[in-house]
Amino acid sequence: MGEAGAAARRGQVGARGRIDKRQAILDAALTVFAREGYAQAGMDVVAAEAGVAKATVYNHFHDKENLLRQTIAALSDQVLAENLGVVGRLADQGEDLRDLLEDVGLRLLRCYCADQSWALRRLLSAEIVQFPDLLDIVHGRAADPVTEALADRLARLTVAGRLSTRDPLMAAEQFCSLLTGPMDKRARLGTRQVPDDELRAVARAAVDTFLQAFAAKPARNG
Amino acid sequence: MGEAGAAARRGQVGARGRIDKRQAILDAALTVFAREGYAQAGMDVVAAEAGVAKATVYNHFHDKENLLRQTIAALSDQVLAENLGVVGRLADQGEDLRDLLEDVGLRLLRCYCADQSWALRRLLSAEIVQFPDLLDIVHGRAADPVTEALADRLARLTVAGRLSTRDPLMAAEQFCSLLTGPMDKRARLGTRQVPDDELRAVARAAVDTFLQAFAAKPARNG
DNA sequence: AAACAGCTAGACGCATGGGTCTAGTTTGAC
DNA sequence: GTCAAACTAGACCCATGCGTCTAGCTGTTT
């Protein structure tokens, strides 16, 4: 056998590893879709990348469109788990609020800038017109729950007197926007690897602005 | 002749209108690329949409890839002109600053939510990996000049004592982020038409947060 | 041992679509 | 009127790629 796919090389041995053909195919599909785009990607290439015969791909996923959906769904679940883990850190009540927010912001940015995250967003943008339901998959499984969870934490911090948000959901959206918006140009839509200190600078600036707007204030006449 | 393309119908008469075959093709290409995606779009379809023979398309644009580049470049120029016009309104020094910013924000959002803008961003995301130079075309011609122009206006407003920005470029990026970030979900990547009062609400919230962070302050100890 | 389910390699049919070419028509310039 | 350039309709070549199928291999179960 001349060559095995990169996913197979990274993952289980492939020949001996009995089970995870399915997962190997999902990983390979993401890699190939991200590299060549969904339309340009060939099922042959996906199979080769997974170290698997083409028929096996069609056994697990009826057709190409279904493979796309499953790939995006699996990736959304993974992204959701990572983001929820980060947002959960806001439950720590002891730390200094600014430091805490900067830490959470930095971690969120690292998730946002992960190759997989960029691949997911690019795939979604590219195929949203052809397959509008992809957006429901991604937002329902990943984006919306994260924003809601963040809004929950901001509301708790407001009740605790450490923040001042009238509309926690809007505040959560703006916090995310301040983080991710400035990243889009710097990351060149995911084609440039942003160094960590640049991430830190963006997170710091975002938290600065956010706290100026939403830090707890004793009173205010408006 | 059974049917003429939608672009020809919208634009010049097509048969009698001598010149703008080229522009008709560019318009048609954008329409078709936006509707079906670059890879799925057929040159036959573009030609038909433009009300033009396929050979004519190849006369004006050597091949499909070149057509994509020209389409994106032309669209970027158009988007740039619209955005610069909006940002230019910040030169009015008389008006109330909050009203002025909200007005500019609203107009920027209208540009951001135009079908063409969404089509441009989706095309860019989809093909950025295949054609990395597309990003230079768009950012160089549209995105970067707009941010710079906005930063210029914010700097002038700071010098005039109406704002307090230490880093006008970062402030400009954050202003745009506060506007566009919350729109992405609401517009469902351009597949949903956002009503005008929703745009107004987002602009209002963005300006609220922005002014809390960057309104002119007499002094500050930190 | 025997039946079975999943996998492999590779050939194959068939549709799609980029790009070319031909032959005939229209348009504008001189 | 005449000529060149651009345009049209449509056939055409050829590469790509989805999805199927066959034939044979491997590991598991009973």
UniProtKB/TrEMBL annotation, chains A, B:
A GO molecular-function annotation: DNA-binding transcription factor activity
Q: Which InterPro entries match?
A: Homeodomain-like_sf (IPR009057), HTH-type_TetR-like_transc_reg (IPR050109), HTH_TetR (IPR001647), Tet_transcr_reg_TetR-rel_C_sf (IPR036271), TetR_C_Proteobacteria (IPR039536)
Domain HTH tetR-type as annotated: residue spans: 19-79
Q: Which residues bind DNA?
A: 42-61
For whether the record's keyword set contains Transcription, the answer is yes
Record carries keyword DNA-binding: yes
- Extract one GO BP annotation from the record: negative regulation of DNA-templated transcription
Q: Which PROSITE patterns match?
A: HTH_TETR_2
**Superkingdom classification of source:** Bacteria
PANTHER family this protein is in? HTH-TYPE TRANSCRIPTIONAL DUAL REGULATOR CECR (PTHR30055:SF146), HTH-TYPE TRANSCRIPTIONAL REGULATOR RUTR (PTHR30055)
Instruction: Kindly provide the name given to this protein in its UniProt entry.
Output: Transcriptional regulator, TetR family
Native species of this protein? Streptoalloteichus hindustanus
Question: Taxonomic lineage of this organism?
Answer: Bacteria, Bacillati, Actinomycetota, Actinomycetes, Pseudonocardiales
